Amino acid sequence: MNTMTIVGKTFSKRLMLPVITSIVCVLTTGLMSFAHARDLPPDPYESVMWENMAERFFPGDKVIFDERVKVIAPQSAEDQFHVPLTIDASEISDVVEVVAVADLNPIPHILTFRPKKAHAFLGFRLKLQQATAIHVGVRTKDDVWHIGAAYIDAAGGGCTAPAAVHGTVNWMSTLGQTRALARRDANGDARMTLRMRHPMDTGLASGIPAFFMNTITVRDQNQEVLAELELFEPVSENPTLTIKPFVSKNGGLLEVAARDNEGHEFGFGLSVPAGIDP
Amino acid sequence: MMTADVQKSRRAFLQSLAVGCACCAYGPAHARLLDYKLAANEIASDTWTVYGASEYFNFDNGGNIVNVAFIEVPDGVVVVDTGPSRRYGEALLALIEKTIPGKPVLRVYNTHHHPDHCFGNQVFESNTLASSQGVIDNIKLEGDGFADNLYRLVGDWMRGTAPVAPGKVLDAKTEVVGGRQFSHFYLSGHTSADLVIRDDETGVLFSGDLAFLYRAPTTPHADIAQWRTSLGVLAKTDRDLILPGHGLIDPKGESLEQTDDYLSWVDGTLRDAVSQGLTMNEAMALPIPRRFAGLGVVQTEYVRSVSHLYARLEDNLMPLIEITR
Asked: Domain A50-272, what architecture?
């Protein structure tokens, strides 16, 4: 009897699926036509996914392209598994969050960065599935999305191949292994670069479930949050990130806490040298 | 199942489309008839080179960015590297036949596994193709990936091209081919296996891509320290002339010095950049010294080199931090 019910349920679910799909389609179409009504500025790279990206990741009614959002990338991806990207919006004040998307990746959302007490500056690497526009939205306190963009040519397949570490024996033994350094730039700004061992599996390679570092929080010695990062599947294996937190001229301690989607937690401290007046 | 007739008419239709496209006055370069227009330049007695452009792969050059050479020996012809595609291999074979009529190709060397150097292999008889075990293994391992990428970069020039690994493994220091002695130097650094060939009669040293002249060195499989060691070995090797893998002929050994100078600068610059915590994009934007301004495609190659080398330097130079879990 029990079994029957389950079979019955499954059966009716199957029947329901096309119905639900049609409803979702109608709704989506409705939403999309709504999106068109939003009067978005045209994308300089004419990405076919621009309106969709804006609707999903840059909601609200104030979206402008702003050349102060610098999205620095090579024209062509030499290695589709590790494409370097640097976002520099440090000329914009009152930044709440920075959202980066790769329009044509199967999972477009790369990361969200909240520079609470840090420059809106971030260096990292990402995987690309094909040549695509990259859009970076910088939301300011007044709820305006300031958009910067880049276009990167690429060979295919960066998101659907197994991480390189799966070719080694016992890759779990180095999980979370961390290299990091903190420096002062010539102008006195503090800068931290970290590199953590993690496969950052997208879940799109056959037989390998999604397994990736998904949050990194940087605090000062008083436990005040300087920067928060939410990472998603497109971030490259062994995430390598550079940020510029605000640190007293006398130096200070950074406390970094990272966590992956299976709940592994990794933490470390790093001292920032005293700055010299530029 | 399609009948032969349907297939034929379908093909005719597709051909008419293709012709239509090719006739467009503003059609892209790759829609024109593809012809490498190879020319033989005599660089030493009975020794010719076919120069490639000092560029990166593109739709216009069809991957012809490489120096290939052939030598007339008493009983036949010896070839060093075969170019980027089957089409190139065919053109090379025709050029050899035109330059040295009626002599058989006895030996074809591959200096290393990069596709611009060995993707013409298909047109030569397999028992004539030879290289070191390392080069052969690398072609087998990476050939297909290179082919995918080269189709993407140069398009239809690649039609019909497939990687072929040499059947003959070289391991001796010298070999006599058709009455002429050649020396083999088993080196590495540009890739994990680089074969250098010397014609012991003319003293021409075929350096492969261990040496570049007025063309920026490429580093996708480079080990800079090994490479610089190999350049030291070549500097002490007797020779009368060097034919670099890319760039002009070099009677004075300038290519060895220039390549070493550039590699040393790239290595030092990237080490500094990693130590300062620069992002890869910031490292890519660093200024290139004026003395390298004359190296073809130096800006492109430097940016590529940052991609090739940066992560390995980070793993070597960034301090390991103790973590709590």
From this structure: Sandwich (2.60)
